[in-house]
Amino acid sequence: MKRYLDDIECASILLELDYVDHDYLDDFANYYVKCFTPYRRYCRRAHFWSINICDVDIEKAILENDVSLLTEIARSYLGFMVIKPLPDAVVGRTVLKPYESDDQHRYYTAIKEHTVNLFGFELSIEGLAFQEQDTVLAACATTALWSALQKTSSMFQTYLPTPSDITKKATKYIQTTRPVPSHGLNVEQICYAISEVGLTPEVQQINENTPINSLIYSYVIAGLPVILGYKFISCGTTLYHAVTICGYRLEDTQQLSTEVSDHNLHLRSIGQRISEFYVHDDTLGPYSRLKTTIYEAANDQPVVLLRETELESFKCQPIILVVPIYHKVRLSFTHVKGAIREFDNYLRALGIHQEGLADQSIFEWDIQLMDITNLRKKILDKHNMDRNCIRELLFQNLPRFSWISIARLNGEEVFCIICDATDMERAFSLGRLICFMPGIRENIKNIIIEGDPDLEMAAQSNLPSPFVYFLKREFLE
Fold this sequence. Notes:
Strand order of the largest sheet: 9-10-11-12-13-14
Mean pLDDT: 87
Low-confidence stretches: none
Shape: globular
Number of helices: 14
Number of strands: 18
Largest sheet: 6 strands, antiparallel, barrel
Radius of gyration: 25 Å
Strand content: 25-35%
Helix content: 25-40%
Structural class: alpha+beta
């Protein structure tokens, strides 16, 4: 934590005494008050600033309503940390400012604004809440889930449980060990705890053909924190750990030649440009880095993550991914990605591929979950689009959530395909193709008319049948 505070250039700390923290108070009532050792019920809360300031300055600014100084105090606020009155694992609910993105390559999308009241003066900080596991009422999976639910509770207006509450809900019906002290949750218990707060767990078992970077990105860019479980070897022992992913770093060039072992399942994707993810790791701290390693053909798992500590680094193999998601989002990334891959194969069969490389797509695909508000904002930002198309998209009825598959050519967004995320997999409802650049629709239409005018090739391919109807509607009618 000290290293992170140094990195964000913390210059001043104000300690707030006898602070009542909701999460710790619930833990205290459920466990610590029943111990023979007389644990305190009050916490302390530390506030951090990037300017040199003391309690006298803050008191004077508040009492005299010094607007200039209060503005500076608010502008330089870096966040807060609750300090629990325990002999160990003292870091309670903590919200800190993320690292700056000097080169515009870092993205923290699964964070939210937190309002802090300090002696009647309102401060705000954007971040994702973090805290340390105490292995009594919360282990790593519990704290990872707790951090994720901090964001989803505001996104979907669902119940926000405390760590103690998560452990109780998760172990209500499934107990592999005693719930308290807690030594961790299994996947079934995590899913049950998510269901108990009114959300649905999207679970993805990760294997050598899972495009892990693109999969994580598709949810995190929508503002959804992702719980990632992985294993690594330390001192000859295989250990398992869970973290909460809240951001990523996107480079200008590809970092990975592929994300999957089977070349037939490869789709050129934006995930190949992701070099690291930013995670809340309860043993390392907030916004810790998980770097993606370069693909090695000999590995069973093409993408391996690198977990770095001050003393050493570990290669981590992702094994499972869990996303707390709104129950009406029924279509998964995997289903959409498979359909887009077949569509890309179809375009390459028609000759739309890199020059001299028939197996290489000219497009980089960016598949992401998007709500209707952000979809319409994106449409409004596209000034080259046909005005009638913009009008139709803005004023027609659309599902609350859609999967947007964006095709990029030389870094420019060319077109996208909208899929209804609230439909069933068997129905796989396709909305429409949106062209962001003039002439694209006509170019693709001419290629299809020349190479597959009756869509016989499309019908005989592995394209889902709705995609064949989609091609006919968008290009041949």
